[in-house]
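We close this part of the discussion by returning to an individual protein. The amino acid sequence and the backbone structure tokens for this protein are reproduced below:
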Amino acid sequence: MKQLTKLSGLAALAVPFLAALPAMAQDAPTAPYTYTPVVHGGDVAWMSISTILVLLMTVPGLALFYGGLVRTKNMLSVLTQVFAITSVVAIIWVTYGYSLAFTDGGAWNTYVGGFSKVFLSGVDTTTLVATFTNGIYLPEYSFIAFQMTFACITPALIVGAFAERIKFSALLVFVVLWVTFIYFPMAHMVWWWGGPDYLAQEQTAKLIAEAAGDTAAAEAAAANLAANGLIWNWGALDFAGGTVVHINAGIAGLVGCLIVGRRVGYGKENMTPHSLTMTMIGAALLWVGWFGFNAGSNLESNAITALAIVNTFVAAAAAGVAWMFAEWLLRGHPSLLGLVSGVVAGLVAITPAAGFAGPMGSIVLGLIAGVACFFFVAYAKNALKLDDTLDVFGIHCLGGIIGAIATGILVNPALGGAGVPDYLSVPGTLQIAPYDFGFMVTAQIKAVLFTLAFSGIGSAILFYIVKATFGLRVKEEVEREGLDVAEHGERAYNY
């Protein structure tokens, strides 16, 4: 059953904090742990809907959000980039991406998966993956499709940092390299674990072996319990992609905009968004789709799903209000662009905490993220002369960092959080572990710093490789004409 259960992904209720808990006195079980996998039709339906919602976030949501923010001459290029990335990565995902992210990597298992599921080998309509409840499973195809949407949207987020000046061919090459060497390993390190039944099975085997004095068997079971991704074993929480998606993409975007360089005329020419109407439509689609992104990450349709929906709603609203009033106070007017930017910042911040925080904690998180991201985008970015075209770093990376660290605080039941799950103290059941502020916050900070270093350095290497082989940037005359006609031979608008 190990191969059946060693497929689960999103850390909605599965927390490696358990590995750091002091050993608890337990009576040795008298028999090995057994279970019968059950698939609930309601869970399958919810995951199917969530998958479609996350695709909606990307196309058309992200494409329109980004497209409206660039100049008219580059609208079509952004739409094409996001659509093409989604299509290319979807094929890569089922070819080898799923295998690298969600299979046992053998000697490299701490960092990346293996090739046992290349071309979806061994996957059919009978294979299952674990959820976060003992005995409850999903069809493997449901999990593959849901995770595919995450793999598609993450590199698409990056393009906003250097929009209006990158070669389409270079972007596609970079994306293929980036998902292979950055995204798939990050997903594995954060979300790869055994599943609740696998943990119960190995913990029971360990206790039986210890009671019988069988040291070798006890050590083997302990090794199996620790056969998880690096960041999972650190105890870091990431409900739906604060590290894997937003910090990962945000820091890659920052590196990219620095290496590609500023746009021609930056700081001298008018580069205001050409259609805030399109941007608002895109932001609205992002907000709607984000319910699938966050609540779908629970892999089941239950109370935690409902909690994630409420948190996604109120955190985004709070961040939008915070950005709006901060801008109103400091700049004299509340703008639509500020309001929708704040909502997206709140969605980013709540992503890692959606199933862990309580609603009131989520509101506070949204307020903080909205104000912090506003100050960076409105003031720090200009002071640094950073040409992050669509504020990928200022919203996704910064918002992701705030949310990731706050998750370690807001999970505390004393603050209305859901608590840290414990699958080991009573194998086969879900308990709530004692909350340790120092451990949880430290684990979250470690995860953030690792993601910044791994993705930042790795992305820089990949950008320089592409720059040396293909060139990253279009010629100045192409940039002035606009990428729509020069790169794609089309215009977004024909009047």
